[in-house]
Amino acid sequence: MTTKPQFTVRPATEADLPTIMQLVKSAIQIMHNSGNTGQWKDGYPGKDIIMDDITSHTCYILMSEGKAVGSFALKPGSDPTYSKIYNGAWLNDEPYYVVHRVTSLPETHGTFAAVLNYSFGICSNIRIDTFCDNTIMRHLLEKHGFHYCGIIHVANGDERLAFHKI
User: Fold this and answer.
1) What is the DSSP letter of 86?
2) Domain 8-165 falls in which CATH fold?
């Protein structure tokens, strides 16, 4: 019988930057292996973005058995890229948090559930977006009860599918 991994979440520190960058590389490899080669390209997310998440106290590390196995950013709204939504609407206009930059190691399962468990402990109104070819994230969002709300555009103009859960 396989036991589910136990995760703890802690705020990331500047000392975690190299570990998080390795987790980013791992996440990119997972995306590429699943056919999603269009997301997180051209050096995104780079060290400057991750460091901004860390210094703004919105970056978190998932730990399992003393090892960093994932990371994510949890940011309070309002997120400027979420101000306009096309071909749909958000579920509400209440204060919300956004989950960004979710990473994990390929051999670690259950990290997204841990991210959501932590996030919903902070705020009961969560938004998230993903690239159209990110079939893994789209599956996880559906599995965890997120509602597809429409299309948003990120800072560089690229489209993202927008999801919301209350």
Assistant:
1) B
2) Aminopeptidase (3.40.630)
Encode the chain (166 residues) as per-residue pLDDT tens digits. Answer: 455 669 999 999 999 999 999 999 999 999 999 999 988 988 899 999 999 999 999 999 999 999 999 999 999 998 999 999 999 999 999 999 999 999 999 999 999 999 999 999 999 999 999 999 999 999 999 999 999 999 999 888 889 999 999 9
Residue 37 · residue 31 · CB < 8 Å: yes
Q: Among candidates 31, 25, 22, which has minimal Cα distance to 130?
A: 31
In which residue are the tokens 């948090």 written? Answer: 97
Residue 63: what residue type? M
Strands, sheet with 59-64, edge to edge from the N-terminal-most edge strand: 8-11, 59-64, 67-76, 97-104, 126-130, 159-165, 147-153
What is this structure's pTM? Answer: 0.94
Cβ contacts of residue 76 below 8 Å, gap of 6+?
95, 96, 97, 98, 123
DSSP β-ladder status, 126-130 and 97-104: parallel
3-state helix, strand, coil in the chain (%, to 5): 30, 30, 40
